[in-house]
């Protein structure tokens, strides 16, 4: 024999959950996971290298580091990985040549990160007129 409902509680609309609360809007849902694409990793690697360099070398405090896709023209050495503009106090790092022109067999995540950090250090060293190996604690 089926049970009969003895309570005369009103039925709630479809917007109410089992606890009588309104459904939650999209604003209060959990945030989406952070993006973790190649460009995001590139930006994060550049940012951490620049942060380290600025904390090590005061000459770089006011230098703007920017990210570009491709250089407009090749230079005498081929496709540049960065461009320096001392008048504007700016270093532009070119993402595509840095990431894509790696030696065969060295295009995994670890080697890509090393290439990115190396480009940042070499560009900053060229900007200040020093050797990239001088960037480090106790150097200079």
Could you explain how this protein is built, in words?
The protein is α+β, with helices and mostly antiparallel strands. The protein has a domain at 38-133: Zincin-like, CATH 3.30.2010. It is built from 3 helices and 3 strands. Helix 1 (38-56) packs parallel to helix 3 (109-128). The chain starts with 37 loop residues before the first helix and ends in a 12-residue tail after the last helix. The model has no long low-confidence stretch (mean pLDDT 81).
Task: Give the beta-strand count.
Answer: 3
Number of helices: 3
Radius of gyration: 27 Å
What fraction, in percent, of the residue positions are helical? Answer: 25-40%
Structural class: alpha+beta
Order of strands across the main sheet: 1-3-2
| CATH top level class name of the domain at 38-133 | Alpha Beta
pLDDT < 50 stretches = none
Q: What's the N-to-C terminus distance? A: 89 Å
Assign an overall shape.
globular
Strand content: 5-15%
| CATH architecture annotation of the domain at 38-133 | 2-Layer Sandwich
Q: What does the average pLDDT come to?
A: 81
Within the CATH hierarchy, at the fold level, what is the topology of the domain at 38-133? Zincin-like
Order of helices and strands: HEEEHH
Name the descriptors:
140 residues, alpha+beta, Zincin-like, three-stranded mixed beta sheet, 3 helices, 32% helix, 10% strand, globular
Describe the secondary-structure layout:
Layout: H1 38-56, E1 64-68, E2 82-85, E3 90-94, H2 95-100, H3 109-128
Parallel strand pairs: 1-3
Antiparallel strand pairs: 2-3
Helix pairs in contact: 1-3
